[in-house]
Design a protein that fits this description.
Length: 389
């Protein structure tokens, strides 16, 4: 049985790998072809192009890559239709995957979209497109299901696999101590984890501001330590370059920065606070019960378009899931070194504010801990069984 899958970024690769493993428990001979990352490749996935080629965010940025993306979509349709794929599963990356799902749906291949596009944020025009292209929507969060049910689109809320992998109710002091021992970070120093994103353009916009803010924080708190986990080797090279440029006039500050290959989980566990780009990492920080400052910065043109279209009061997952502001969000022009550093310092100095988040984070954790990999695999296999009869 051939199953097509496309994951466009690190978080999708993680979801895809978990789903592959769970499907193989039911169909051991299943083959998986499409676009995936290292976690999926480790399970025998056949990727026809590196996943990095799909990691483009925004409205305008993909236009420069349009010929390449159209060629990739055409190649995937040809391959999956000629080999009669049983089902195609698009994991997130809706700009690319929904178009691909429409083409595959038109030639009779069953289609699943894993991770609901933000139809609740961007208005409901997109829901009609989803209804035409998708046989099954796998949503991560309970609040997303209603809009699909209203439109008669089959939807299954599976929860989030990160919530399954991270144990709730852990002793946070002990966890922090263990993580710091592994990273060799001083046990008593204040530690901030910096996570400017996993995409090249995202890191280019946020990392210089994060590093500049860190240097301003060091003036107030000279014992501060910063840990920067890098999503992959290319981001490591990018971060190292940006850090070297920022430290030309402050070379002695280099000892305050620890750059690691991967290990975001451990870096967050070691930290008192996480400064990060809006995205899946905010959910990881929530599940690890870490206070955070969330930053969101797009190109000027994309931001101008987004401001006209976005229909929700929050952009970060912790606030969306809580339905109120739990963590601060700094948007676009607010993302400056002085504003970011002031926000970081205010959190580090307010233990009561940090501790007040714990119960809210714990409640959200429990609500999305639903055994996502198995739930998603069961829903996909049910779709296949229904198609066969």
């Amino acid at each position: 049985m051939l199953i097509g899958m496309v994951a466009g970024e690190t978080s999708g690769d993680m979801l895809g790998a978990g789903l592959m493993h769970a499907i193989r428990q039911r169909h051991p001979q299943a083959r998986f072809v499409g676009v995936g990352g290292p976690l999926m490749l480790a399970q025998g996935f056949e990727s026809i192009t590196p996943m990095e080629r799909l990691s483009v965010m925004g409205f305008v940025e993909p236009l420069g890559r349009l010929p390449e993306l159209l060629r990739l979509k055409r190649d995937l349709v040809t391959r999956l239709s000629s080999e009669q794929a049983a089902v195609f599963i698009g994991i997130d990356s809706p700009g690319f995957n929904l178009r691909l799902e429409q083409n595959l749906h038109d030639v009779g291949i069953k289609t699943v979209h894993y991770v609901s596009p933000s139809v609740w944020a961007w208005g409901k025009g997109r829901i009609k497109k989803i209804a035409r292209a998708v046989d099954l929507m796998l949503a991560l969060f309970p609040f997303e299901s209603e809009i699909y049910q209203q439109q008669g689109i089959p939807v299954h809320c599976v929860g989030h696999s990160l919530a399954d992998r991270i144990e709730p109710g852990q002793d946070q002091a002990w966890v922090r101590q263990q993580a710091r021992a592994v990273l060799q970070v001083p046990e008593t120093a204040p530690v901030v984890c910096l996570m400017p994103g996993s995409r090249k353009d995202e890191v280019q916009r946020l990392a210089p501001v994060f590093i500049a803010a860190a240097l301003q924080c060091l003036v107030q708190k000279p014992d501060l330590q910063f840990v920067i986990p890098c999503a992959n080797e290319r981001r490591r090279e990018q971060i190292d370059t940006l850090l070297a440029q920022a430290l030309v006039d402050a070379p002695t500050a280099r000892q305050a920065f620890l750059v690691t290959d991967g290990g975001s989980h451990q870096a967050m566990q070691a930290a008192d606070l996480v400064l990060l780009a809006s995205g899946t990492a905010t959910l990881e920080a929530l599940l690890l019960k870490r206070p955070m400052v969330v930053c969101y910065r797009l190109s000027a043109l994309t931001w101008a378009l987004a401001r006209r279209l976005v229909k929700v009061p929050f952009i970060s997952l912790p606030n969306l899931l809580a339905g109120r502001e739990l963590v601060p969000e700094l948007l676009q022009d607010q993302v400056t070194a002085s504003v970011v550093s002031a926000e970081v310092l205010s959190w580090l100095d307010d233990n009561a504010r940090q501790e007040s988040l714990y119960d809210a984070f714990e409640a959200i954790h429990q609500s999305i801990r639903l055994d996502a990999d198995q739930q998603a695999a069961a829903a996909v296999c049910q779709l296949l069984d229904e198609a066969a009869h």
